[in-house]
Design goal:
This protein has 444 residues and is mainly alpha-helical. The protein has 15 helices and 6 strands. The strands form 3 sheets. The protein has a two-stranded antiparallel ribbon. A two-stranded antiparallel ribbon has the order 2-6. It has a two-stranded antiparallel sheet with strand order 4-5. α5 runs antiparallel to α6, α7 packs antiparallel against α10 (338-351) and α10 (338-351) packs antiparallel against α12. The longest helix is centred in the first third of the chain and has 30 residues, at 96-125. Residues 2-33 have low confidence and may be disordered.
Length: 444
Protein backbone atom coordinates (compact mmCIF):
# COMPACT_ATOMS: atom_id res chain seq x y z
CA UNK A 1 0.00 0.00 0.00
CA UNK A 2 2.97 2.30 0.20
CA UNK A 3 3.70 5.16 -2.21
CA UNK A 4 0.25 4.94 -3.76
CA UNK A 5 -2.58 7.40 -3.21
CA UNK A 6 -5.57 5.65 -1.68
CA UNK A 7 -9.07 6.14 -3.00
CA UNK A 8 -12.09 5.94 -0.72
CA UNK A 9 -14.38 4.83 -3.50
CA UNK A 10 -17.55 6.85 -3.78
CA UNK A 11 -16.64 9.26 -1.00
CA UNK A 12 -13.21 10.65 -1.86
CA UNK A 13 -11.44 11.87 -4.99
CA UNK A 14 -7.88 13.13 -5.08
CA UNK A 15 -7.72 16.87 -5.65
CA UNK A 16 -5.08 17.47 -8.30
CA UNK A 17 -2.98 20.61 -8.31
CA UNK A 18 -2.82 21.42 -12.00
CA UNK A 19 -1.46 24.98 -11.91
CA UNK A 20 -2.69 27.92 -14.02
CA UNK A 21 -1.20 26.93 -17.36
CA UNK A 22 -4.49 25.56 -18.72
CA UNK A 23 -7.37 28.00 -18.31
CA UNK A 24 -9.91 25.25 -19.09
CA UNK A 25 -8.92 23.53 -15.86
CA UNK A 26 -8.51 26.65 -13.77
CA UNK A 27 -11.95 26.42 -12.17
CA UNK A 28 -13.44 25.98 -8.72
CA UNK A 29 -14.99 22.55 -9.03
CA UNK A 30 -17.43 21.88 -6.16
CA UNK A 31 -17.14 18.14 -6.82
CA UNK A 32 -13.44 18.03 -5.90
CA UNK A 33 -13.10 16.48 -2.46
CA UNK A 34 -10.02 16.37 -0.30
CA UNK A 35 -9.54 13.77 2.40
CA UNK A 36 -10.58 16.18 5.13
CA UNK A 37 -14.04 16.33 3.56
CA UNK A 38 -14.87 12.82 4.71
CA UNK A 39 -14.11 13.73 8.31
CA UNK A 40 -17.31 15.78 8.40
CA UNK A 41 -20.25 14.27 10.33
CA UNK A 42 -22.47 14.68 7.28
CA UNK A 43 -20.25 12.22 5.41
CA UNK A 44 -20.33 9.50 8.09
CA UNK A 45 -22.68 7.10 6.32
CA UNK A 46 -20.92 7.65 3.00
CA UNK A 47 -17.57 6.72 4.54
CA UNK A 48 -19.00 3.46 5.87
CA UNK A 49 -20.78 2.73 2.59
CA UNK A 50 -17.47 3.26 0.80
CA UNK A 51 -15.81 0.83 3.21
CA UNK A 52 -18.52 -1.73 2.47
CA UNK A 53 -18.05 -1.34 -1.29
CA UNK A 54 -14.28 -1.68 -1.04
CA UNK A 55 -14.62 -4.74 1.17
CA UNK A 56 -16.91 -6.46 -1.34
CA UNK A 57 -14.58 -5.53 -4.20
CA UNK A 58 -11.48 -6.85 -2.41
CA UNK A 59 -13.10 -10.19 -1.63
CA UNK A 60 -14.15 -10.53 -5.27
CA UNK A 61 -10.48 -10.19 -6.19
CA UNK A 62 -8.69 -12.25 -3.54
CA UNK A 63 -10.96 -15.29 -3.27
CA UNK A 64 -10.36 -16.34 -6.87
CA UNK A 65 -6.60 -17.05 -6.66
CA UNK A 66 -7.28 -18.72 -3.33
CA UNK A 67 -10.00 -20.90 -4.90
CA UNK A 68 -7.85 -21.82 -7.90
CA UNK A 69 -4.97 -22.77 -5.62
CA UNK A 70 -7.45 -25.01 -3.76
CA UNK A 71 -9.76 -27.51 -5.46
CA UNK A 72 -12.70 -25.18 -6.03
CA UNK A 73 -11.72 -23.97 -9.52
CA UNK A 74 -9.30 -25.22 -12.14
CA UNK A 75 -7.64 -23.43 -15.06
CA UNK A 76 -9.14 -23.83 -18.55
CA UNK A 77 -8.10 -20.59 -20.26
CA UNK A 78 -5.02 -19.00 -21.75
CA UNK A 79 -3.32 -17.20 -18.85
CA UNK A 80 -0.52 -19.31 -17.40
CA UNK A 81 -0.50 -17.51 -14.05
CA UNK A 82 -3.81 -19.24 -13.27
CA UNK A 83 -2.20 -22.57 -14.22
CA UNK A 84 0.63 -21.87 -11.80
CA UNK A 85 -1.83 -21.41 -8.95
CA UNK A 86 -3.79 -24.47 -10.06
CA UNK A 87 -0.57 -26.51 -9.77
CA UNK A 88 0.02 -25.30 -6.20
CA UNK A 89 2.71 -22.68 -6.87
CA UNK A 90 1.26 -20.19 -4.42
CA UNK A 91 4.12 -18.08 -3.09
CA UNK A 92 5.29 -16.43 -6.33
CA UNK A 93 5.08 -12.65 -5.73
CA UNK A 94 5.12 -12.03 -9.49
CA UNK A 95 1.96 -14.00 -10.26
CA UNK A 96 -0.16 -11.48 -12.13
CA UNK A 97 -3.44 -12.49 -10.47
CA UNK A 98 -2.33 -12.49 -6.86
CA UNK A 99 -0.55 -9.23 -7.68
CA UNK A 100 -3.73 -7.73 -9.16
CA UNK A 101 -5.65 -8.74 -6.03
CA UNK A 102 -3.19 -7.24 -3.56
CA UNK A 103 -3.94 -3.51 -4.07
CA UNK A 104 -7.74 -3.92 -3.62
CA UNK A 105 -7.02 -5.96 -0.49
CA UNK A 106 -4.75 -3.28 0.99
CA UNK A 107 -7.08 -0.51 -0.14
CA UNK A 108 -10.08 -2.07 1.61
CA UNK A 109 -8.15 -2.78 4.80
CA UNK A 110 -6.99 0.83 4.93
CA UNK A 111 -10.41 2.31 4.23
CA UNK A 112 -12.25 0.12 6.73
CA UNK A 113 -9.77 1.11 9.44
CA UNK A 114 -10.22 4.76 8.44
CA UNK A 115 -13.99 4.37 8.68
CA UNK A 116 -13.70 3.02 12.22
CA UNK A 117 -11.38 5.84 13.27
CA UNK A 118 -13.61 8.48 11.68
CA UNK A 119 -16.83 7.16 13.22
CA UNK A 120 -15.26 6.78 16.64
CA UNK A 121 -14.58 10.52 16.57
CA UNK A 122 -18.13 11.30 15.47
CA UNK A 123 -19.70 9.12 18.16
CA UNK A 124 -17.53 10.75 20.81
CA UNK A 125 -18.93 14.14 19.78
CA UNK A 126 -22.44 13.16 18.67
CA UNK A 127 -23.53 9.81 20.16
CA UNK A 128 -26.72 9.57 18.12
CA UNK A 129 -28.31 6.27 17.14
CA UNK A 130 -27.36 6.90 13.51
CA UNK A 131 -23.71 7.52 14.37
CA UNK A 132 -23.54 4.50 16.67
CA UNK A 133 -25.05 2.32 13.97
CA UNK A 134 -22.54 3.55 11.41
CA UNK A 135 -19.70 2.88 13.85
CA UNK A 136 -20.93 -0.68 14.40
CA UNK A 137 -21.13 -1.15 10.62
CA UNK A 138 -17.59 0.21 10.24
CA UNK A 139 -16.35 -2.32 12.79
CA UNK A 140 -18.17 -5.05 10.86
CA UNK A 141 -16.37 -4.29 7.60
CA UNK A 142 -13.01 -3.76 9.31
CA UNK A 143 -13.52 -7.13 10.98
CA UNK A 144 -14.28 -8.80 7.66
CA UNK A 145 -11.15 -7.39 6.06
CA UNK A 146 -8.86 -8.40 8.91
CA UNK A 147 -10.47 -11.84 9.00
CA UNK A 148 -10.16 -12.49 5.27
CA UNK A 149 -6.54 -11.32 5.17
CA UNK A 150 -5.74 -13.54 8.15
CA UNK A 151 -7.39 -16.50 6.42
CA UNK A 152 -5.87 -16.21 2.94
CA UNK A 153 -2.55 -14.35 3.25
CA UNK A 154 0.84 -15.73 4.21
CA UNK A 155 2.07 -12.25 5.15
CA UNK A 156 0.86 -8.65 5.02
CA UNK A 157 2.01 -5.09 5.68
CA UNK A 158 -0.31 -2.60 7.37
CA UNK A 159 1.00 0.44 5.53
CA UNK A 160 -0.86 3.75 5.66
CA UNK A 161 -0.96 5.40 2.23
CA UNK A 162 2.61 6.63 1.71
CA UNK A 163 3.66 5.72 5.26
CA UNK A 164 5.50 2.42 4.99
CA UNK A 165 4.97 -0.38 7.49
CA UNK A 166 7.06 -3.53 7.87
CA UNK A 167 5.48 -6.89 7.07
CA UNK A 168 3.87 -8.63 10.01
CA UNK A 169 5.68 -11.87 9.23
CA UNK A 170 4.01 -15.24 8.62
CA UNK A 171 4.36 -16.17 12.28
CA UNK A 172 2.28 -13.15 13.31
CA UNK A 173 -0.62 -13.36 10.88
CA UNK A 174 -2.86 -14.72 13.63
CA UNK A 175 -2.92 -11.19 15.04
CA UNK A 176 -5.14 -10.11 12.15
CA UNK A 177 -7.69 -12.74 13.15
CA UNK A 178 -7.47 -11.53 16.74
CA UNK A 179 -8.03 -7.98 15.51
CA UNK A 180 -11.02 -9.17 13.47
CA UNK A 181 -12.55 -10.69 16.60
CA UNK A 182 -12.05 -7.40 18.43
CA UNK A 183 -13.83 -5.52 15.65
CA UNK A 184 -16.70 -8.01 15.73
CA UNK A 185 -16.90 -7.61 19.51
CA UNK A 186 -17.41 -3.89 18.97
CA UNK A 187 -19.93 -4.50 16.18
CA UNK A 188 -21.98 -6.85 18.37
CA UNK A 189 -21.89 -4.38 21.25
CA UNK A 190 -22.83 -1.45 19.03
CA UNK A 191 -25.64 -3.34 17.31
CA UNK A 192 -27.02 -4.40 20.69
CA UNK A 193 -26.88 -0.82 21.94
CA UNK A 194 -28.93 0.55 19.03
CA UNK A 195 -31.24 -2.46 18.77
CA UNK A 196 -30.20 -3.46 15.23
CA UNK A 197 -31.02 -7.19 15.16
CA UNK A 198 -29.79 -7.79 11.61
CA UNK A 199 -26.42 -6.17 12.28
CA UNK A 200 -26.05 -8.11 15.53
CA UNK A 201 -26.73 -11.38 13.67
CA UNK A 202 -24.11 -10.63 11.02
CA UNK A 203 -21.49 -9.59 13.58
CA UNK A 204 -22.13 -12.59 15.85
CA UNK A 205 -21.94 -15.06 12.96
CA UNK A 206 -18.79 -13.44 11.61
CA UNK A 207 -17.20 -13.55 15.04
CA UNK A 208 -17.89 -17.28 15.14
CA UNK A 209 -16.21 -17.68 11.76
CA UNK A 210 -13.21 -15.59 12.82
CA UNK A 211 -12.76 -17.57 16.05
CA UNK A 212 -12.95 -20.86 14.18
CA UNK A 213 -10.46 -19.58 11.59
CA UNK A 214 -8.18 -18.57 14.44
CA UNK A 215 -8.21 -22.18 15.66
CA UNK A 216 -7.54 -23.42 12.12
CA UNK A 217 -4.61 -20.99 11.87
CA UNK A 218 -3.02 -22.64 14.90
CA UNK A 219 -3.66 -26.06 13.37
CA UNK A 220 -1.85 -25.36 10.08
CA UNK A 221 0.95 -23.00 11.17
CA UNK A 222 3.87 -23.09 10.82
CA UNK A 223 2.88 -26.39 9.17
CA UNK A 224 -0.14 -28.68 9.59
CA UNK A 225 -0.18 -30.62 12.84
CA UNK A 226 -0.43 -34.39 12.74
CA UNK A 227 -3.71 -36.01 13.66
CA UNK A 228 -7.30 -35.63 12.53
CA UNK A 229 -7.11 -31.94 11.68
CA UNK A 230 -10.25 -31.26 13.70
CA UNK A 231 -10.30 -28.07 15.75
CA UNK A 232 -12.38 -27.37 18.81
CA UNK A 233 -13.29 -23.85 19.81
CA UNK A 234 -15.87 -23.50 22.56
CA UNK A 235 -16.01 -19.75 22.05
CA UNK A 236 -16.64 -20.12 18.31
CA UNK A 237 -19.35 -22.71 19.00
CA UNK A 238 -21.01 -20.43 21.54
CA UNK A 239 -21.15 -17.61 19.00
CA UNK A 240 -22.37 -20.01 16.34
CA UNK A 241 -25.27 -21.13 18.52
CA UNK A 242 -26.09 -17.52 19.35
CA UNK A 243 -26.12 -16.62 15.65
CA UNK A 244 -28.41 -19.56 14.88
CA UNK A 245 -30.81 -18.29 17.52
CA UNK A 246 -30.70 -14.75 16.17
CA UNK A 247 -31.37 -16.08 12.65
CA UNK A 248 -34.59 -17.75 13.77
CA UNK A 249 -33.58 -21.13 15.10
CA UNK A 250 -31.99 -24.39 14.03
CA UNK A 251 -33.97 -24.68 10.79
CA UNK A 252 -33.14 -21.18 9.54
CA UNK A 253 -31.21 -21.29 6.25
CA UNK A 254 -29.72 -17.78 6.41
CA UNK A 255 -26.84 -16.29 4.39
CA UNK A 256 -25.04 -12.98 4.55
CA UNK A 257 -24.03 -12.22 0.96
CA UNK A 258 -22.19 -9.42 -0.77
CA UNK A 259 -24.05 -8.35 -3.90
CA UNK A 260 -22.50 -6.80 -6.99
CA UNK A 261 -23.86 -4.79 -9.90
CA UNK A 262 -22.91 -2.44 -12.71
CA UNK A 263 -24.02 0.47 -10.54
CA UNK A 264 -21.98 -0.44 -7.45
CA UNK A 265 -18.83 -2.59 -7.61
CA UNK A 266 -17.89 -5.52 -9.79
CA UNK A 267 -17.04 -9.09 -8.83
CA UNK A 268 -13.67 -9.87 -10.40
CA UNK A 269 -14.04 -13.56 -9.56
CA UNK A 270 -17.34 -13.92 -11.39
CA UNK A 271 -15.98 -11.94 -14.32
CA UNK A 272 -13.02 -14.28 -14.87
CA UNK A 273 -15.03 -17.48 -14.37
CA UNK A 274 -18.44 -16.73 -15.85
CA UNK A 275 -17.63 -14.12 -18.46
CA UNK A 276 -14.04 -14.77 -19.55
CA UNK A 277 -13.99 -18.54 -18.86
CA UNK A 278 -10.40 -18.58 -17.66
CA UNK A 279 -11.32 -20.92 -14.81
CA UNK A 280 -14.02 -23.52 -14.29
CA UNK A 281 -15.55 -25.32 -11.32
CA UNK A 282 -13.27 -28.16 -10.23
CA UNK A 283 -13.72 -31.55 -11.87
CA UNK A 284 -14.16 -33.23 -8.51
CA UNK A 285 -17.36 -31.21 -8.19
CA UNK A 286 -18.84 -31.15 -11.70
CA UNK A 287 -18.69 -32.92 -15.04
CA UNK A 288 -18.02 -30.78 -18.11
CA UNK A 289 -18.59 -31.21 -21.82
CA UNK A 290 -16.12 -30.79 -24.68
CA UNK A 291 -16.48 -27.02 -24.50
CA UNK A 292 -15.58 -27.06 -20.79
CA UNK A 293 -19.12 -26.03 -19.85
CA UNK A 294 -20.76 -27.63 -16.81
CA UNK A 295 -22.87 -30.63 -17.85
CA UNK A 296 -23.85 -32.16 -14.51
CA UNK A 297 -23.08 -32.31 -10.80
CA UNK A 298 -20.41 -34.87 -9.96
CA UNK A 299 -20.04 -34.66 -6.20
CA UNK A 300 -22.55 -36.88 -4.41
CA UNK A 301 -23.96 -36.90 -0.92
CA UNK A 302 -22.13 -39.72 0.91
CA UNK A 303 -25.31 -41.12 2.48
CA UNK A 304 -28.03 -40.66 -0.14
CA UNK A 305 -25.72 -41.11 -3.17
CA UNK A 306 -27.38 -38.28 -5.12
CA UNK A 307 -25.95 -35.14 -6.68
CA UNK A 308 -25.23 -33.12 -3.58
CA UNK A 309 -28.06 -30.60 -3.16
CA UNK A 310 -26.07 -28.29 -0.89
CA UNK A 311 -23.38 -27.83 -3.52
CA UNK A 312 -26.03 -27.52 -6.21
CA UNK A 313 -27.63 -24.62 -4.34
CA UNK A 314 -24.27 -22.87 -3.93
CA UNK A 315 -23.48 -23.35 -7.61
CA UNK A 316 -26.91 -22.19 -8.75
CA UNK A 317 -26.48 -19.01 -6.74
CA UNK A 318 -23.14 -18.37 -8.43
CA UNK A 319 -24.62 -19.15 -11.85
CA UNK A 320 -27.71 -16.96 -11.34
CA UNK A 321 -30.22 -19.76 -10.96
CA UNK A 322 -29.16 -22.63 -13.24
CA UNK A 323 -26.01 -24.67 -12.59
CA UNK A 324 -25.31 -25.17 -16.30
CA UNK A 325 -25.87 -21.57 -17.36
CA UNK A 326 -23.07 -19.14 -18.10
CA UNK A 327 -23.83 -16.97 -15.08
CA UNK A 328 -23.10 -13.29 -14.81
CA UNK A 329 -20.12 -11.19 -13.87
CA UNK A 330 -22.04 -9.92 -10.82
CA UNK A 331 -22.67 -13.15 -8.91
CA UNK A 332 -23.09 -12.73 -5.15
CA UNK A 333 -20.56 -14.09 -2.67
CA UNK A 334 -21.54 -15.55 0.70
CA UNK A 335 -19.56 -14.29 3.69
CA UNK A 336 -21.21 -16.32 6.43
CA UNK A 337 -24.26 -18.55 6.89
CA UNK A 338 -26.21 -20.56 9.46
CA UNK A 339 -24.96 -23.69 7.69
CA UNK A 340 -21.42 -22.67 8.58
CA UNK A 341 -22.57 -21.98 12.14
CA UNK A 342 -23.96 -25.52 12.50
CA UNK A 343 -20.77 -26.97 11.05
CA UNK A 344 -18.61 -24.98 13.48
CA UNK A 345 -20.71 -26.28 16.38
CA UNK A 346 -20.65 -29.80 14.92
CA UNK A 347 -16.86 -29.79 14.60
CA UNK A 348 -16.38 -28.46 18.10
CA UNK A 349 -18.54 -31.30 19.40
CA UNK A 350 -16.74 -33.94 17.32
CA UNK A 351 -13.32 -32.68 18.40
CA UNK A 352 -14.42 -33.18 22.01
CA UNK A 353 -15.85 -36.65 21.41
CA UNK A 354 -19.45 -35.48 21.65
CA UNK A 355 -20.96 -37.56 18.86
CA UNK A 356 -24.52 -36.69 19.87
CA UNK A 357 -23.78 -32.97 19.56
CA UNK A 358 -22.12 -33.53 16.21
CA UNK A 359 -25.09 -35.53 14.96
CA UNK A 360 -27.57 -32.87 16.05
CA UNK A 361 -25.87 -30.06 14.19
CA UNK A 362 -24.88 -31.93 11.06
CA UNK A 363 -28.47 -33.13 10.73
CA UNK A 364 -29.78 -29.58 10.97
CA UNK A 365 -27.66 -28.84 7.90
CA UNK A 366 -28.78 -31.97 6.10
CA UNK A 367 -32.43 -31.19 6.85
CA UNK A 368 -32.10 -27.92 4.95
CA UNK A 369 -31.74 -30.02 1.79
CA UNK A 370 -34.16 -32.82 2.69
CA UNK A 371 -31.36 -35.38 3.06
CA UNK A 372 -31.45 -38.55 5.15
CA UNK A 373 -30.37 -37.82 8.73
CA UNK A 374 -26.94 -39.02 9.77
CA UNK A 375 -27.02 -41.96 12.17
CA UNK A 376 -23.57 -43.47 11.80
CA UNK A 377 -23.79 -44.58 8.15
CA UNK A 378 -20.32 -43.13 7.39
CA UNK A 379 -17.34 -41.96 9.40
CA UNK A 380 -18.27 -38.78 11.25
CA UNK A 381 -15.06 -36.93 10.40
CA UNK A 382 -15.43 -37.80 6.72
CA UNK A 383 -18.99 -36.50 6.77
CA UNK A 384 -17.86 -33.24 8.38
CA UNK A 385 -15.22 -32.77 5.67
CA UNK A 386 -17.81 -33.36 2.98
CA UNK A 387 -20.41 -31.06 4.52
CA UNK A 388 -17.87 -28.28 4.92
CA UNK A 389 -16.80 -28.66 1.31
CA UNK A 390 -20.27 -28.46 -0.21
CA UNK A 391 -21.77 -25.93 2.19
CA UNK A 392 -18.84 -23.48 2.23
CA UNK A 393 -17.87 -23.66 -1.44
CA UNK A 394 -16.51 -20.30 -2.58
CA UNK A 395 -16.36 -18.81 0.90
CA UNK A 396 -12.58 -18.47 1.19
CA UNK A 397 -12.15 -21.44 3.54
CA UNK A 398 -11.26 -24.46 1.41
CA UNK A 399 -7.46 -24.22 1.19
CA UNK A 400 -7.15 -24.11 4.98
CA UNK A 401 -9.37 -27.18 5.20
CA UNK A 402 -7.29 -29.02 2.62
CA UNK A 403 -4.11 -28.36 4.57
CA UNK A 404 -5.48 -29.43 7.94
CA UNK A 405 -7.20 -32.55 6.60
CA UNK A 406 -4.29 -33.59 4.37
CA UNK A 407 -6.26 -33.25 1.12
CA UNK A 408 -4.30 -32.66 -2.11
CA UNK A 409 -5.73 -31.24 -5.32
CA UNK A 410 -5.28 -33.42 -8.38
CA UNK A 411 -3.32 -30.72 -10.19
CA UNK A 412 -0.83 -29.91 -7.44
CA UNK A 413 2.78 -30.49 -8.48
CA UNK A 414 5.35 -31.97 -6.13
CA UNK A 415 7.54 -28.87 -6.38
CA UNK A 416 4.67 -26.51 -5.62
CA UNK A 417 4.30 -24.82 -2.25
CA UNK A 418 0.97 -26.55 -1.58
CA UNK A 419 2.79 -29.92 -1.53
CA UNK A 420 6.34 -29.01 -0.51
CA UNK A 421 5.33 -26.44 2.15
CA UNK A 422 1.74 -27.23 3.17
CA UNK A 423 0.11 -24.36 5.00
CA UNK A 424 1.43 -21.77 2.53
CA UNK A 425 -1.04 -19.01 1.75
CA UNK A 426 -0.99 -16.09 -0.69
CA UNK A 427 2.10 -13.84 -0.61
CA UNK A 428 2.86 -10.16 -0.38
CA UNK A 429 3.21 -9.43 -4.10
CA UNK A 430 5.58 -7.47 -6.26
CA UNK A 431 3.44 -4.31 -6.35
CA UNK A 432 3.96 -3.97 -2.58
CA UNK A 433 7.54 -5.25 -2.58
CA UNK A 434 8.66 -2.60 -5.06
CA UNK A 435 7.12 0.24 -3.08
CA UNK A 436 7.83 -0.92 0.47
CA UNK A 437 11.29 -0.05 1.73
CA UNK A 438 11.16 -2.88 4.26
CA UNK A 439 10.82 -5.34 1.39
CA UNK A 440 12.69 -3.90 -1.61
CA UNK A 441 16.14 -3.62 -0.04
CA UNK A 442 16.21 0.18 -0.25
CA UNK A 443 16.12 0.58 3.51
CA UNK A 444 13.76 2.77 5.52
Amino acid sequence: MTNRIKSTGIVLMAALSLGACDSLLDVNNPNNLVEESIQQPSAASAVVNGAQARTARAIGFIWQPYAVAADEFYWIGSRDAWLSLDQGFISDPNNEFTDAAFPPLGDARWLTDLAVETLQGHVANTPSTRMKTDLARAHLYAGIMHMVIGEVQEDFALSDKTETAPPLGPENMYTLLDEAITHFDAAVSGATDVGDADLKLKATALRARAKHSRAIWDQINPSPKSGSGLVGSASAATDALAAIGLAGGAAADWNYDFHYSAGTVGNDLANWVNDRKENQVDLTLVNVNAANDIASIKIQDPIDAVADPAFLKRLEKFKDGAFNSKGSQYSPLTIVSTRLMHLIAAEDALAKGDNAGFTTHVNHVRAMDGLTPYSGQVDAADLLKHERRVNTWLMGLRLGDMYRFGIKAAGWQTQGDAVSKPGTMLPITIVEIRSNCYLNGAGC
